[in-house]
């Protein structure tokens, strides 16, 4: 696995947890539990933001990734001409 794919998986997991905490917060009538889930949701949003920032950095600064993207673009162009 590459760092990029690991981060992509971490983003997906963090987004899933974010949604779960939001759902729990809206489903409870217990004020203390609601506050806890909202705090966890905010924490997870920070995690998602950090991961996305790192992923954006990798996408824009990783030479190998840029080469792979260029190769994919050429392949897409060639397949569209068929």
UniProtKB/TrEMBL annotation:
InterPro entries: DUF1657, Ferritin-like, Ferritin-like_SF. It comes from Thermoanaerobacterium aotearoense SCUT27. It holds the Pfam family DUF1657. Transmembrane segments: none annotated. Coiled coil: none annotated. This is Coat F domain-containing protein.
């Amino acid at each position: 696995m590459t760092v990029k794919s690991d981060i992509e998986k971490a983003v997906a997991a963090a987004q899933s947890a974010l949604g779960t905490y939001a759902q729990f917060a809206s489903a409870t009538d217990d004020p203390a539990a609601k506050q806890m889930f909202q705090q966890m949701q905010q924490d997870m949003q920070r995690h998602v933001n950090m991961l996305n920032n790192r992923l954006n950095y990798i996408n824009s600064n990783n030479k190998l990734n840029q080469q792979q993207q260029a190769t994919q673009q050429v392949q897409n162009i060639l397949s569209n001409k068929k």
